[in-house]
Design goal:
Rossmann fold, about 40% helix, 6 strands, globular
Length: about 190
Amino acid sequence: MNVFDFDKTIYRSDSTKDFIFWCFRHRPKTIFYIPKIGFYSARYYLFRIGTKTEFKEKMYSFLKAVRGEEDVERFWSEKIGGIKPFYQKIHRDDDVIVSASPEFLLKPLEKILRIHVIASKVDIHTGKYDGLNCYHAEKVKRFYDLYPDAQVDEFYSDSYSDEPLALLAKKAYIVEGDTLIDWDYTKHKTNLRT
């Protein structure tokens, strides 16, 4: 079994950011949420107030102005080309994506890419979380909840914040653009805020 982060790992960009901007273009009412998103972004990133889960829940309130699954399907029909070629070459049917992005956004990829998705449980209509943001050590917890006896052959991520998952794998890689680099276990992401 191979395990992957998603954003900037096998997908060229950040899927959540891309979906938000897609919604701004296709669902004009979402634009009214920009001040709220800006306020909570500054509160979390500049003033370091609150948790990542709290921040994202406020950010996802824009989902009240979108058409749920219909918009997610349209989004992926336009953006699926963002999957990196290296992933298409190494794909296996038992691949697992473990991502902090919302589950509703990545779940359609299970059929499109023939993979399994573990992601943050976010209500597609309200933006409310069910549990914690799927980030750092929470990724390992969520992975083992579903695959308690799994043996991870290879792990891929663009960030050293995924070290807890990298430690489960026989071999781990940092992904920089289209380049795969052996994981450097001397590098640790610091000041993690979950």
